[in-house]
Amino acid sequence: MFGLVRGCYLARRIGSPGSLKGHGLQNHCVTNQSAVGRGILKLADAMLLNDRLVAEIAAAGGRVDDVFVCPHAPSEACACRKPNPGLIIKAAARHSLDLEKSILVGDALTDLQAGRNAGVGQNILVRTGRGATQLALPEASQMAPFPVFDCLSDVVNFLYPALL
Ligand SMILES: [Zn+2]
User: Fold this and answer.
1) Read out DSSP for 31-59?
2) Would you state the torsion angle of the CA atoms of residues 70, 29, 5, 16, taken in this order, to the nearest 10 degrees?
3) How remote is the CA of residue 23 from the centroid of ligand 1, in Å?
4) 71: closest CA among 114, 18, 30, 12?
5) 3-class DSSP state for residue 105?
6) How far is residue 1's CA from residue 91's CA, in Å, rounded to a whole number?
7) How far is CA 16 from CA 45, 149, 156, in A?
8) Ligand 1 centroid vs 70 CA: distance in angstroms?
């Protein structure tokens, strides 16, 4: 499972479109979009933005199999807003994912916490997006150690040979 990270496209360094799928891997995006719950963005518009992101990744030769959105405001205390595991558990149920063997990549500590709360086997932080700022937070050093990569492409390049 790959959480998508702004500004770092999964597809860029992968040899051929669909190659990850060819090896039985799925890519899912799990995203908090509290702008919906706060009334800043309509859910339909958020979904359009997600569709556009998925289309851009596809145009670059990558693939996103599914997108899971938490549209709630933090004040709603839902079960799906990361660091809660709800969205990841939903993704696992819908796509029969073995979370212990899954990989979550995020740019926020709450992404990693959500992964751990859901039982995801590997939870990785990237420095792109909010990652570098998040890494400098005191909370980062208080968490159990986690791997850090510069960007999503580096994660894929590191992991992918082992998956062939
Ligand atoms: Zn939610």
Assistant:
1) EE-HHHHTTSS-HHHHHHHHHHHHHHHHH
2) -170
3) 31
4) 30
5) strand
6) 9
7) 31, 22, 13
8) 4
- Positive or negative, the CA dihedral 95, 159, 33, 45 is negative
Q: For 20-34, write each residue's pLDDT tens digit.
A: 555 567 889 999 999
Q: Encoding tokens for residue 91?
A: 């993704």
Stretches in the chain below the pLDDT threshold 70: 1-24, 162-164
Tens of pLDDT, residue by residue over 116-148, are 999 999 999 999 999 999 999 999 999 999 999
pLDDT score at 22: 52
Structure tokens given for 57: 């990744």
Q: How far is the CA of 61 from the centre of ligand 1 (A)?
A: 30
Query: 3-class DSSP state for residue 117?
Result: helix
CA of 6 to the centre of ligand 1 (A): 20
Residue 4 C-alpha to ligand 1 middle, in angstroms?
A: 18
